[in-house]
Amino acid sequence: MTANDQTAKLWWAVPAATILMLMGLALVFGKPPEQAKVRTSYDASFDGFRAAYLLLEELGYPVVRSKRPTGGAARLVLFPNAAQDKANLLDSWIREGGIVILAVQKEEFAKELGMGLKIQKLNEDPQEEPASGAGITQLAGGTFRVEWPGQAGEVWARAGDQPVITIYGRERGQIWLVNRPEFLTNRQLQRADNAVLLCRLAEKALRERSGKLSFDEYFHGMHERPGVTELLLQPPTLWITLQGLVLLGLLLWRFAPRFGNPRSVGSGRRRSKEEFLDAMAALLERKGDYADAFRTAWEDLIHEMGRELGLPADTPGDRILQEAERRRPIRLVRFRRLLTAVVARSQTVPQQGRAGKLAFVKALHELENARDEFFNGRHYR
Q1: Cα–Cα dist 78/362, whole Å
Q2: Per-residue pLDDT for 352 more than 50?
Q3: Residue 39: predicted pLDDT
């Protein structure tokens, strides 16, 4: 094999090495996974929301943790404390038809969404209050209240004479403001009918939008680590990816077979075995050596039988026939008699004239039948 042939067969090595190099760079530039932050669905402290997530998950609600700014059928954004500069992405998602269940304890994030909220600290914890709506009768709402002055919304649940959940429309989407956000924390969720209200809230959101109910972690600073494909399409690896694709295209154009005009396939006529043998007989008629031609065919059959039986190359013909009788589950007596008759006929084949041609053809027919009898188990009468 020449050096050019080896190069042509190994053309794929360059693009394969390029792809492996890009994957290595993507893994190097990729950011490590973020650590769990406080007041998230991972936080099991009194002020976290792990109990809310596990409760819905155990009851079979389709909940997920989301580390991206948008997505899902509806999103619970609970006490966000980071990435306020990305709040415009969440606002656009809401306007396109998303639902956000918003619970805040600070005004800054709500301002990024265009909401001028008023957060009021209560003088003392009211403990459990009479409640109505959403199938609840008691609520432990916590120590502060959130309102949106000057905006009219649909009050979905109340505690006393104050709203607990208020729904505001925003173009095609909605913002469900939690007016008593502490009822969702681990400390309060086990009290009164707080867990029931959470389940009713999830059911209503999933009725409005089919899909997954997402617990937002992005606005707590927990960003999902991009995959290799995403990293390859971002700077600084984007330019290397483009160069690799161009190189791969050039190599494919150089070495890969290209399509051309379809070649018409001629419909060849298959010749019969008789035509082939007649042609051979006509050729031999000019030479006149029928016996030698038949002997060559006979010896070829015997050696082929020996190879089929796994016998050495120098095994005599009689020995091969004996082994064939012993091993092959066919009509051996008839087969041996046929071969004997073929040998006898081959010795009496005339050496010239039309009679010699016909006898030679008939002898080859019988030899072919003997071969099929041995290899394919066909029986001729």
Answers
A1: 96
A2: no
A3: 81
Q: pLDDT tens digits, residue range 228-266?
A: 666 667 676 677 778 777 877 777 777 766 665 655 655
What sign does the CA torsion over 266, 272, 278, 281 have? positive
The DSSP code sequence of 264-279 is PPP-PPPPPHHHHHHH
Same domain, 305 and 177: no
Q: Name the residue type at position 97.
A: G
- Structural domain boundaries, residue 213: 50-225
Specify the CATH number for the domain of residue 204.
3.40.50
Q: Do 183 and 120 share a domain, yes or no?
A: yes
Q: Is residue 37 part of a domain?
A: no
Has residue 36 been placed in a domain? no
Task: Find the mean pLDDT for residues 351-355.
Answer: 52
User: Same structural domain for residues 101 and 196?
Assistant: yes
- Top-confidence residue, 22 or 68: 68
Q: What is the pLDDT of residue 265?
A: 58
- Other beta carbons within 10 angstroms of residue 116's beta carbon come to 11
**Residue 74 sits in the same domain as residue 197:** yes
- Nearest residue to 57 (alpha-carbon basis) of 202, 175, 252, 194: 202
- Number of other CB atoms surrounding residue 39 within 10 Å: 17
Torsion region of 118: left, alpha or beta (phi above 0 gives left; psi -120 to 50 gives alpha)? beta
Same domain membership, residue 294 and residue 193: no
Residues 20 and 107 placed together within one structural domain of the fold: no
For residue 381, tell me if it sits in a domain.
no
Q: In 3-state terms, what secondary structure has residue 314?
A: coil
- Is 116 a domain residue? yes
Rounded Cα distance between 379 and 334, Å, is 9
pLDDT of 347 > 70? The answer is: no
Residues 308 and 375 sit within 8 Å (Cβ to Cβ) = yes
Q: Which of 131, 162, 170 is nearest to 144 (CA)?
A: 162
| Residue 138: φ, ψ to 5° | -135, 150
Q: Are residues 124 and 218 in the same domain?
A: yes
Residues 198 and 346 in one domain: no
pLDDT, tens digit, 9 for 90 and up, residues 67-88? 888 888 899 999 988 766 788 8
Which pLDDT value is given to residue 343? 56
Q: pTM value?
A: 0.54
- Of the listed ranges 147-156, 169-178, 213-222, the least confidently predicted one is 213-222
* Pick from 349, 339, 324: nearest CA to 380: 339
